Amino acid sequence: MTGPAIITKRSISDRVHEMLSSWTSLDGRFMAVVVALVIAGILAVTSSSFAMALSVHDDAWFFTRKQLGSAALGVVCFFVISNIPASLIRRFAPYAFGLSAILLLAVPFIGRAALGAKRWLFFGPIQLQPSEIVKFTAVIWLAAILSSDRRRVKSMLQHWIQIGVIGFLIIMTERQPDLGTALCIGIGVVATLFVANIHRSQIIAIILVGACGVGYLVFAPQGGHDYRSGRFAAVADPGKDRDGAGMQNWRSLVALANGGATGLGLGQSREKRRGGVPMQRTDFIFAVVGEEVGLVGTLSLLALYLWLLMVGINLSVRSTDPFSRYAIAGITSSIVGQALLNMAVVTSIVPATGIPLPLVSYGGTSLVLTLAALGVVAALSRRKPARNMGMEK
Amino acid sequence: MNERRNTRPGRVPAPPRPTAPRSTPNVQAINRARKDEHGRMGIVLWIGGLAFTLIAGKLTLIQLVQRDIYAGQSSVSRIRHINDEPRRGMIVDRNGRALVMNVPAVTIVFDANILVKQTGDPEDLLSATKIGLEEALPGLDLASMLTSSNEILLRRNNARARFQPVELVRDLDLANLDLKVLRKLPGIGIVKTTKRSLASGEIAASVVGLLGRDANPLSGMELAMNEHLIGVPGQRYLAKDLDGIIPGTEEVVSKVKHGNDVVLTIDSVLQSEAESLVQSVVAKSHAQYGSVVVLDANTGDVLVMANATGIDTIKNAPKGLQKLLLTKNWAVEGANEPGSTFKSFTIASALDAGVITTNSSFLCNGERRIGKRAVHCAPHGVFQHGHASQDVSGVIKQSCNVATAEIASRLGWDRLTSTLHAVGCGQRLEIGLNGATRGVFPETESKIGLATLSFGQGPAISPLHLASAYGTFVDGRFRRPTLIHAVRDQVSGAVKLTKRSEAERVFSAETATQMRSLLKDVIETGTGVKAQLAFHDAGGKTGTAQMVEDGRYSGKYMASFVGLAPIKEPKFIVAVTIAAPKGDHYGGSVAGPVFKEVMERAMVRYDIQPTRTKRQLSQRSDSAGKGD
């Protein structure tokens, strides 16, 4: 390959042209849905946080500014990663996974507890939730492993060590305790296994095992985690204990209902104020969206995620390389699955689990990592390898 | 090119189409795998679609179908019903100086329920409260009002019933009070209130009246003008959350209408001076009470209505009445026989009717028999056996009962009583105060009744009656007194003036001029010499009447003096009444000097041109001022 020689000869204008062309080689519909979600997210964060920001920080734009910064960093990550060749991503997948796994395993030792859970690592001003990273690195690593298995119907038993390691990390995440993120990792992993054509009976078995595990966690009487069964009861009848266990559910239902068909108008949410919807700019931002833009808005946001899923699956189907196929499907499923889970929580379909709405909820780690993961999708779904663009010219 | 790409490390070869000629078994297997995978991806889409449908359905249910279950059940925006309490109007004097206003105050409450909930020994908590209260409010002995520690202990074990919070001190002045310290005491609560407070010096307290607990008016203007002062509460609804009022949620049902200010005709400067004068005289002479009324001679405006109640009077009264007695408005509520001050009306009426002239001459030998009864002139000074022969000026100067009775007999019952009615006697003077007295007026005609009426025995009038009746001598017209000048909107300042009644003619202007000249003689050389002003000519009449107690004459006297100045063009009418002074009890000597003081101050305050230069007070003798 004559690569290096040719690369050194390229002029700056060539490079600029190359970069611009590299954008155009990204899928338009995919870019549109990502941009739409990020913008919707910034609007929602602004609207849901300004009252609280004014009250707590005396600055209505406090959270918006931070979210805009995170979004900018996320977009940079997105474009940088989207320019990495698929082969490189595949090669680095095990290392990325290994690093994130070590971070996750370090949490119980050097992590910091907040709100009754030990989920975070702090490196100076930087705050990291390793489980969020593992969510994506596990899927990419799994895609790399499974894509090397060329058999038509694959067996998990062939990769039991790797799958076991991922399972262990999911359990570690649950123990933090963080059932929500554990479920999100699980969704991405199962989706990856599923699209990689793992044997049907093994898929059913792994889903059953997961369901039993969740069921046990929710219903088994155990010290320290009793709030989970209470949350389950709250979903069954949110109005019963409005100021206790059912508070989150009840208040988000009130907010959604206040919105009605067309909502109270942007910025007009009443329930976002103190004493109303809890975690109104993070886990329950969907309720504020529902109050401000009504059913029209919630269904539109829902449609955006459905669109993301469809675009993602489409990109996956069009991809020629198994690694790209599995990774794209896995990442997309993981993100959309998390969104569905979050909305199901807000609409009291499932008990509160404490996960943000991807790309929309306030929170830097989540936004940057989700955009980075979508950058991987972009990189893997380029119509032509980026490197060859200049050479073809 | 294609070859190169396929051989690059890590690059999966592009799958050829199934129908491609170069297909191998391996490629076929890969294609079958992709087909399977496509199927799986379809299932993923289906599952996703199902989940979306479920959530979309639930959203429709919440936001559209079952909306009414949840909507508006917010725990954020609790709607509050707010009653806006109106500010009570002020009572101000004619120059806008506040006589009574609202000042912030606090009520200190002790709530034993707080101690029940608190941990720690109730004994310790209570003693902390006791010490704190003693430090903050020394000398009030509030400790006895606190609940005992035993009761608190009992209630801790059985927390069913609640203690009734106890009001320790009500409407306490904020000055010298450290609320922060008080608030920290166990069980102590502080409620902000407003307190009605008289202007410094408590000027015109008897006119302003009292406002009791819960803004319940008890007397005076506070009671009479309560409807104007009180205002109308406003009603609002608004949504509040933990951060306060949510902007844009306020809904005003009715706006608060603050009470109106009441503007009195009182001149608080003159009032204050008159009050201290009358108070000192009442105190010095151990009188029952005293009052001074000053009227504007041209309008009938009440410039001063000063009252003083003697210390003994208050001491002897039942406890509940003491406070009310202290601010009793004797000037309008106290009715007494006027005595000799009434003679002016008999003489004026006779002059006006033409039955006498100023040159008419009368003989007094100290007694006049009327049927079986007789009227007398009290012997005084050089007049130990009647006043002998005298003209009209002499009659009024020496206050001769015999001659006045003679004049009255010439005048007749009807003409005298109609004159007296015309100057307001026997009727309530409506000046806006509730307790105003009608007085007493004899209804049945009799010869002896006519005689005694002519010199003021039998009827009863208030000091205000006396002052306004003497207003007739300004120009022959009677002006009803006015105390409420206007009602003023507290917010906009818009003033609604009180409608004043027209002056009614009683005597001719000529008669009035003659009367003023006669009244001047009283002060110059008659019983009223102690009322002479330094720089102005004044006219007036003394009165010394026996006070009626329980329907009979008592040994107490009512000393009064009423007059006008300057005599040519009167500006003020001053009536002074001192009830039951001990020792010297003559109108001329007890009330006269007060008249002089008040009138002189009025002259100075209103800058009235002097009508004479200071000179030796004339006709001073031992008998001066002793006549009745």
| Overall average pLDDT of chain B | 82
**Main sheet makeup of chain A:** 3 strands, antiparallel
The biggest chain-chain interface is: A-B, 66 and 52 residues
User: Given the structure, what is the number of helices of chain A?
Assistant: 15
Q: Give the count of helical stretches of chain B.
A: 22
State the gist of this model.
Chain A has 393 residues and is mainly α. Chain A is 69% helix and 3% strand.
Can you put this structure into words, describing what you see?
- In chain A, 69% of the residues lie in helices and 3% in strands.
- Chain A is globular.
- By secondary structure, chain A is mainly α.
- In chain A, helix 5 runs antiparallel to helix 6 (130-147), helix 12 runs antiparallel to helix 13 and helix 13 (322-346) packs antiparallel against helix 14 (364-380).
- Chain A has a three-stranded antiparallel β-sheet with strand order 1-2-3.
- Chain A has helices at residues 3-9, 12-24, 28-57, 62-82, 86-110, 130-147, 160-175, 179-195, 200-219, 227-236, 247-259, 285-318, 322-346, 364-380, 386-392; strands at 112-114, 117-123, 126-128.
- Chain A is built from 15 helices and three strands.
- In chain A, strand 2 (117-123) and strand 3 form a beta hairpin.
- The two termini of chain A are 17 Å apart.
- In chain B, a hairpin with a 2-residue loop joins strand 20 (539-549) and strand 21.
- Helix content of chain B is 36%, strand content 22%.
- In chain B, helix 17 packs across helix 19 (447-454).
- Mean pLDDT of chain B is 82; it is low at 1-12 and 619-625.
- The longest helix of chain B is centred in the N-terminal third of the chain and has 41 residues, at 25-65.
- The termini of chain B are far apart.
- Chain B is an alpha+beta fold and 628 residues long.
- Chain B has 22 helices and 22 strands.
